[in-house]
Amino acid sequence: MGQTWTVASTDETAQVGQHASPFGSAPPPQPPPAGDAARGARMPRWLPRAMVLALTLIACFQLGSWAFHQLTGLLINILIAFFLALAVEPAVSWMAAHGVRRGVATALVFLAVVIASTGFVVLMSSMLAGQIVNMVEEFPEYLDSVINWINATFRTELSRVDIQDSLIHSDWLQKYVQNSASGVLDVSAQVLGGLFRLLTILLFSFYFAADGPRLRRALCSVLPPARQAEVLRAWEIAVDKTGGYLYSRGLMALISGIAHYVLLQALEVPYAPVLAVWVGLVSQFIPTIGTYLAGALPMLIGFTVDPWYALWVLIFVVIYQQFENYMLQPKLTAKSVDIHPAVAFGSVIAGTALLGAVGALIAIPAVATLQAFLGAYVKRYDVTDDPRVHGRRQRGSGAALKRVRQALNGPRGRVTQPDEEAQGPAAR
């Protein structure tokens, strides 16, 4: 018989493959289409853009940080100039209101400030120079008196000639002279840098004060009307607080100078007017430690005349400082700079930590301005009439505490009643 051959269809072949014996080999997996593989291995389109943006931001941050560190000195000078312009703003505005051109008024105010500062520096320099010359001329006599006291007290045999020879031939003195000679150039560079910085501050402050209205218009032109009112209000508060602070300090410096001048003149201490001006300015415009720095120089000069004069100056400085802190300063600064003494002290410390001496000078008017500006937007309520607000205990608090103690002690023991005491132990 002949064999009959049949051809299986494709579906049947697939079914045979599915029901193949487990001992047989499984069919190989089919590879994905070529188009899907290319799309799966391709980089997302947003990733290059994100990488470029991140690198750009990092570069901009590094560049901005470098520029900020390079321009820190200039920014501090501009900040000082701005506060100086705020301080002279009331005087300039007053002169401008009386018919003087604003530029001319600003020039006159700054000319007066420069003349007063230069005169003070010249007087102080002449006083110090004369005092140093006198101390150098009288130094051998002081040295002899000190040596005689040491010999009489400790029974030694020191002589001025031996001490001078040992000092002249000492290695310490030679090294000090060499270091001082090499440091002359550094001091000269610092002096020139200080003069350039002073001129920069005066120039910026002159522009800020002379072009104050134009500067405010330029600033308000880029702000909406609501923000313009807030900026102008903040500017006005800053002018009032800064000018009031400096003028009140100037008045207190004048009073302090006059009081110390009377004392120094009565003690016949040389250079009494210059020392009085020194005490007035330093004690008022250098916060926290200004009083001690101001009193140190008159004490030193008075000590050269008579050691007891230094003690009298110290006693007067301490007494006047208490009078100024508790009587004079609250009345003069109540309207101009109304901030708590603790807040003022903390602001001075923070300003010193941030900007050094400059921060110490501008810390108090800056905090006063911020406090006054925030006070216009902070909602306040009437304080309840509670004795605890005034630091006193509330009435009845002792009785309530006593009842609480009795309630707590009740389960521990029973209180004996008067009737039981009268009946005695038999009734119990």
TrEMBL record:
Membrane protein topology class: Multi-pass membrane protein
Region (Disordered): 1-40, 388-428
Compositionally biased tracts (Pro residues): 25-34
One GO term describing the cellular component: plasma membrane
Protein name according to UniProt: AI-2E family transporter
Start-end of Polar residues biased regions: 1-18
Chain ranges passing through the membrane: 50-68, 74-96, 108-133, 187-209, 246-263, 275-295, 307-323, 343-370
Subcellular location: Cell membrane
GO biological process, one term: transmembrane transport
Family affiliation: Belongs to the autoinducer-2 exporter (AI-2E) (TC 2.A.86) family.
InterPro entries reported in the protein's UniProt record: AI-2E-like
UniProt KW keywords: Cell membrane, Membrane, Transmembrane, Transmembrane helix, Transport
